């Protein structure tokens, strides 16, 4: 078999050994009859598809990191075991993509060296397992976490232009082994099919920017103001969530609103707590082991004050940022207790920030008494009522009558022919398109979207004109002075033309050079 210039026989032999898992010498008589068959071509095509499949999963894995803390909390509620599953996800994905990428590179190098593509049965088995694992991951994502499909669509607004350039570059490089294969094969039908398929794909890629839209393709002077930051349970990457320390850390990050969750104790004291059980964020298992599984509202305030609400943060390390805390912050975390709503309101008043909260659990039989107790604390606290943002839908009319100054925030979109226009909405970031955000902004409706942790997502929402975002990563988003990227439409058009022309000329060169 002929070798390309620069493709030495020892290199070709090593490549063939790694791909075929057997040592085949470079002597011609040893290679007699060893050629790439249709079956081998089918396995190469399968390898290419598995690589693309794992590459798409890698993209999804990176996107869902924004929401992965929710998944960790969900698993803890089910298994009472805290693990940062994002590390498991990334490591497993890296292994799969690396394996398939290495095999693909070996196959392309063998093709360029005019060597047979004899994939070993072990590699075939592992490729099938890789495809099954990734398919299972996508299936699980669709069943248990369907909203992440909408997250992926939003992510394309941030990555679309760059994905286009990357895919065009990858397909352009593929022209070299494709040209080598076409000139080596004697099957005319296969040649025509591959050329037509390749040309169709490249034509689609060249025209793809016509369908790419992003709110960040705009002029600099059209950029809306930076969204305000709402601290999700405070600053949970820097301090134990829903504690006074977390509120202070959020203030240091220049958040304008402290978002929290309120429950009411058995003796009528509203306090800050997200979970219905206390086991994740306190040491209730050690202090009250026989009552650890009870609802948080089953404990009286005296019992709740005995619990440590901070040490879990250092032990479980819910975020990687915990490891970088100073000694002083670590000590302060161990001293945290469950704060009452009264204490949180006082801290918010002193810091001149607003407080927004849900009242849980909504299905409790004494929910109206919870509303009454919460309203009583708010009215007695002395905090300006416009600094209180009320999220619960239950008994909202009663709240409007007793505390008319409290800002009403709705967890839904506006309705047609609504009697009372909405002024504030609070929704998952997946639930509003860029067009809806712009329309709400034009109609002077404040839009807060949650939970936004990654700079790419914050950039897209910033460009869209969202009023504020709820975040776990206030220390990261506060440092952003500008969206990650902003491209004037004329500049993007120029990049599109240059990339497509360069790709076309490179492909033409590849086919002419290897002829």
UniProtKB/TrEMBL annotation:
Alphabetically sorted, this entry's keywords are: Glycoprotein, Hydrolase, Membrane, Transmembrane, Transmembrane helix
Q: Is Phosphoprotein included in the keywords of this UniProt record?
A: no
From the Swiss-Prot or TrEMBL record, state where the protein is found.
Membrane
Where's the GP-PDE domain? Answer: 227-481
Q: Which Pfam families match?
A: GDPD (PF03009)
Membrane-protein topology? Multi-pass membrane protein
Q: Does the keyword Transmembrane apply?
A: yes
Q: Name one GO cellular component term.
A: plasma membrane
Q: Name one GO biological process term.
A: lipid metabolic process
- The UniProt transmembrane annotation reads 41-65, 85-113, 125-143, 163-185, 192-212, 493-514
One GO molecular-function entry: glycerophosphodiester phosphodiesterase activity
Q: Which Gene3D superfamilies match?
A: Phosphatidylinositol (PI) phosphodiesterase
Family per similarity comment = Belongs to the glycerophosphoryl diester phosphodiesterase family.
Instruction: Quote the protein name from its UniProt record.
Output: GDPD2 inositolphosphodiesterase
Ranked from the top, the taxonomy reads:
Eukaryota, Metazoa, Chordata, Craniata, Vertebrata
């Amino acid at each position: 078999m002929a070798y390309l210039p620069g493709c030495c026989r020892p290199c070709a032999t090593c490549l063939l050994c790694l791909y075929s898992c057997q040592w085949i010498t470079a002597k011609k008589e040893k290679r007699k009859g060893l050629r790439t068959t249709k079956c081998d071509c089918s396995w190469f095509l399968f390898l290419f598809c598995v690589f693309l499949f794992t590459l798409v999963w890698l993209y999804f894995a990176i996107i869902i990191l924004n929401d992965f803390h929710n998944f960790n909390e969900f698993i803890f509620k089910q298994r009472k075991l805290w693990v940062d599953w994002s590390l498991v996800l990334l490591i497993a994905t890296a292994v799969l993509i690396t394996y398939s990428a290495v095999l693909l590179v070996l196959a392309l190098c063998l093709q360029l060296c005019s060597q047979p593509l004899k994939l070993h049965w072990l590699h075939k088995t592992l490729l099938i397992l890789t495809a099954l694992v990734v398919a299972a991951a996508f299936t699980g994502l669709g069943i248990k976490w369907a909203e992440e499909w909408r997250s992926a669509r939003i992510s394309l607004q941030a990555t679309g232009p760059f994905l286009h350039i990357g895919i065009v570059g990858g397909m352009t490089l593929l022209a070299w082994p494709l040209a080598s294969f076409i000139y080596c094969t004697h099957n005319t039908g296969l040649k025509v099919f591959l050329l037509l398929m390749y040309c169709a794909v490249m034509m689609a890629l060249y025209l793809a920017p016509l369908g790419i839209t992003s709110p960040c393709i705009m002029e600099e002077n059209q950029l809306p103001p930076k969204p305000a930051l709402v601290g999700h349970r405070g600053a949970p990457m820097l301090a134990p969530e829903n504690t006074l320390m977390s509120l202070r850390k959020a203030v240091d990050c220049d958040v304008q609103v402290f978002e929290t969750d309120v429950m009411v104790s058995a003796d009528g004291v509203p306090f800050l707590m997200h979970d219905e059980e206390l086991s994740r964020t306190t040491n209730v298992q050690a202090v009250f082991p026989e009552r650890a599984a009870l609802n948080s509202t089953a404990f009286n305030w005296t019992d709740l004050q005995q619990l440590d609400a901070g040490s879990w943060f250092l032990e479980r390390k819910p975020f990687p940022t915990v490891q970088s805390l100073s000694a002083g912050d670590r000590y302060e975390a161990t001293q945290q207790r469950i704060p009452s709503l009264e204490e949180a309101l006082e801290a918010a008043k002193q810091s001149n920030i607003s407080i927004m909260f849900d009242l849980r659990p909504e299905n409790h039989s004494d929910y109206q008494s919870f509303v009454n107790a919460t309203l009583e604390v708010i009215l007695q606290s002395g905090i300006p009522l416009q600094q209180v943002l009320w999220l619960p839908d239950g008994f909202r009319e009663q709240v409007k009558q007793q505390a008319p100054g409290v800002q009403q925030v709705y967890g839904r979109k506006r309705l047609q022919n609504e009697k009372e226009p909405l002024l504030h909405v609070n929704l998952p970031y997946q639930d509003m398109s860029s067009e809806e955000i712009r329309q709400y902004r034009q109609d002077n409706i404040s839009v807060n979207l949650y939970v936004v942790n990654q700079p790419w997502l914050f950039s897209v929402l910033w460009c869209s004109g969202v009023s504020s975002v709820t975040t776990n990563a206030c220390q990261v988003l506060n440092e952003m002075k500008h969206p990650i990227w902003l491209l004037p439409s004329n500049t993007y058009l120029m990049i599109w033309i240059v990339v497509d022309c360069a790709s076309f000329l490179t492909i033409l060169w590849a086919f002419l050079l290897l002829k």
